[in-house]
Structure formats: C-alpha cells, structure tokens
Input
Amino acid sequence: MIQSFIFYLDIFGSKVLVASGSKGDKTTEIIDVEDASFRCNVDPYPTSASTATGGLVCYTPIICGGISGSFQKSCYSLNEDGSWKDEADLNEAKMSASTGSVTIDNKMVIAGGHNGGDLKTIEVVAPNTQSEILPIKLPVAHHGLCIVSWDTNTFMVIGGSGGRTRTFLIHTANNSYTEGPNLQIGHHWTGCNTITVNGQDYIIVAGGSGAAGSTEYISKANYASGWKRSKNRTVV
Output
C-alpha cells in the first residue's frame, strides 16, 4: 500500500518493507511486526520519490514511479542481498498510481496515477522485463485509487481522487470492464485487500483521505448485495 509520502508493503508473513519518503528521505527498512528485535540490512532506496507504487512479483519487491522534483518513470527491484536493481522504466512517468498489489501473468499491475493530469492508463511491470501499457484503460482517469485481485485476469478498482465511491471490475482477458457496487462513502489514498473468513472471501477497504477510520467490506460470492460498513476504527 502507499501513503502520501512513504511506500510500505507486506513482503513475507509478518514482515513489512518501508521505503523512500518526502524531503529527500531514502530510508529503507524491513520491520517484523511480531518481532521487535528483528534486523535486516537494506540499502537506501535509490531516489527520494514519494507517492510511489509497488508490490510483489514472484516474491520480488518492486517499486515504480513517484515524484522527486519531477514525475518519475524509474522502477527498482530489491535483491536478496539488500541492494536495489534498476529495472526497465515505466512507459509513463507518474505519481499516486494504484495502491494494492495485483499481479496478472506474473506482472505487477499499475493503474491510473497523476503526471500533471489524472491518467486512465494501466501498465504491467516485472523484473527483467520491459514494461507494457495494456489495451484496456480505466473508465475514469484518477489517482489515489486502490486495486485488488478478483480472479486470474480481473481486478477491482476502488475509490480514487476526490473521494470516489464508484468501483469497477477490469477484465484484462477481453479488454472490458463492468461497474461494481458503489462504496457507501468515498475513499481516496486508501488501502484494500482480500481476506478469508470462515472459508468465504471478502474484499476490505479501509481509511484514506476523507475516510479516516472508515472500513467497508464486500463478499465476493455475493457482491451484488453491496458494500457493508464495519465499525469505525479509532484514528490517533
């Protein structure tokens, strides 16, 4: 997931990768939320770009884009020795592209973003591979959206700039989309993921600009029933 200035990503079990930030910060850490004594040496992120986006591709963390004086195209993957590798650039420089970690055909999906104007484009990236812009575009140009996998070739777009309530299912196999149920409140720069409860899969969206403390969820098996509100979290 991405926040306004810092990239952070669940990598293995209880471990979280934190990288980059605003005001020239290139600090990179791996934190174990279950073991405060855990230490791992990781080189500083190569740029000070904030609002980057990233995820795991075949267990390799990769981070792309962001802004550092100008909109960035660069992508970097994290090696096992803690160093960063410069991968092929994005086709479009951008910041505030999709949060969430979705892979299709072993490539990470990067949707939307901002580079002076909001974007509709969807790119896929992977280590040792040239990035590619998909034929399908977002129905609406926006940034600060969250995406979550729906099935092998489909992902859901949730929220976005201005606190959007609309959701979409993007079908990459046939380059089409369908509208999903509207959120109950708008979410911008939010987090989303899939959780399994009693054998049933749910998509959950939490927090974000204008929605601090708010959590909504939807059943994948019964998504026509719409989004449900959970009890608001206390925000400190």
In short: The longest strand covers residues 191-197.
